[in-house]
Specification:
The chain is 38% helix and 16% strand.
Length: 367
């Protein structure tokens, strides 16, 4: 038995729509781009949204339409996928990292306040592993300080905070549809904004800075568009998105029922937040080191189970020269391990994963 950490499901219906897009000969921009955007807007309950060539492209677009300039300061979580920080580096922006909560793995208003300054132009919150941040206090802080707020909802499509979809609460929300994501187009992303003025800029910067007048540029833009081919897959998958979300929640509930030990704790999901787990994330107890966590990953692989380590803390990465005080992020990077969640994961496979995980832990010699 071999169980991957993630497994994209492109079914027959998806392929039928893809073939329609191919046969239409509109393989770049086309009607499926518009139709996918329309379905996404309806699901998220937003007015202004555009799909992009990737999640990172959506982040790049966000920085451009906000008018951020080299040297401008933004706050990014110290634990999580670092796309927001990476893109900021390429644009010459100054990245300041905020530490995270040791239980939710997400930033909160207190960790943000510790690094907030008069130079802060943007706060980026990442809903890591699908777990939503406590948004009310963060939104209030951003409004009070007159700072833009962006949600990185790449891993959180379908998660809700007080009835509002992830990515729709801040000024800007970005999404990713890569192969491991809840909804996948292979590569792809989306960006939604609250203001019409930002949406108008989004459309310009996404496509070379062109107006409706062919080849006429009024701003220096990029080609950050999603193709009609990829959009056709996204359009198709939107038809079963609610079913996908239900399956993920069911898979998580089975894991939660079986996996219990004093040797680890599951990522905490607050009761008043409806988060959709993107993966099953576990924090090993303090007896474990980075070395022993990595050995656990290797042992699981021998049993045919793919798992992944936590995200590296910025202090461990050479691209971030400044050393930050991020004790919790650093600790999580060493002791977090994530287990598979994907649409086709069977209950018997979950039992097998849990059985082998517990067996390895029960005979583990800490090192």
């Amino acid at each position: 038995m071999t169980i991957p950490w993630a497994k994209p499901l492109v079914n027959k219906r998806d392929i039928q729509y893809l073939n329609k897009a191919v046969n239409s000969q509109w393989i770049a921009m086309g009607e499926y781009v518009h139709n996918f955007e329309k379905r996404l807007k309806k699901f998220l309950k937003v007015n202004y949204l555009g799909v992009t060539s990737s999640g990172s492209a959506a982040i790049n677009l966000a920085y451009l339409i906000l008018g951020l300039k080299p040297g401008d300061e933004l706050i990014v979580p110290g634990f999580g996928f670092l796309a927001a920080a990476n893109v900021a580096q390429t644009l010459g922006l100054k990245v300041v990292f905020a530490d995270v909560d040791p239980h939710t793995f997400c930033v909160n208003v207190d960790t943000i306040k510790k690094v907030l300054s008069k130079k802060t132009k943007l706060i980026v919150v990442t809903h890591t592993y699908g777990n939503m941040c406590g948004m009310s206090e963060i939104v209030s802080l951003a409004k009070r300080k007159k700072i833009y707020l962006m949600e990185d909802a790449a891993q959180a499509l379908g998660s809700k905070y007080k009835g509002k979809q992830a990515g729709t609460i801040g000024d800007i929300g970005v999404f990713s549809f890569t192969a491991t994501k809840t909804l996948t187009t292979g590569e792809g992303g989306a960006i939604c904004v609250k203001k019409r003025s930002l949406y108008n800029k989004l459309i310009l910067y996404r496509s070379y800075g062109y107006t409706k007048k062919r080849y006429y540029c009024i701003v220096p833009g990029h080609n950050l568009r999603m193709s009609n081919l990829l959009a056709s897959i996204g359009f198709s998958q939107m038809g079963r998105l609610n079913s996908i979300l239900k399956k993920r929640k069911k898979i998580y509930s089975v894991y939660k029922r079986i996996l219990k030990s004093d040797k680890f704790s599951l990522q905490k999901f607050e009761k008043n937040i409806s988060s959709i787990p993107w993966t099953l994330s576990i924090k090993l107890n303090k007896n474990f080191t980075q070395k022993s966590r990595n050995s656990l990953i290797s042992e699981l692989k021998k049993k045919g189970i793919e798992s992944r380590n936590g995200y590296y803390c910025p202090n461990e990465l050479s691209i971030f020269k400044k050393k930050y005080k991020l004790p919790i992020s650093s600790d999580l990077s060493k002791r977090v391990i994530s287990l598979p969640i994907f649409e086709e994961l069977k209950v018997k496979e979950i039992y097998y994963i849990c059985k082998k995980f517990n067996e390895i832990l029960n005979k583990w010699i800490y090192q």
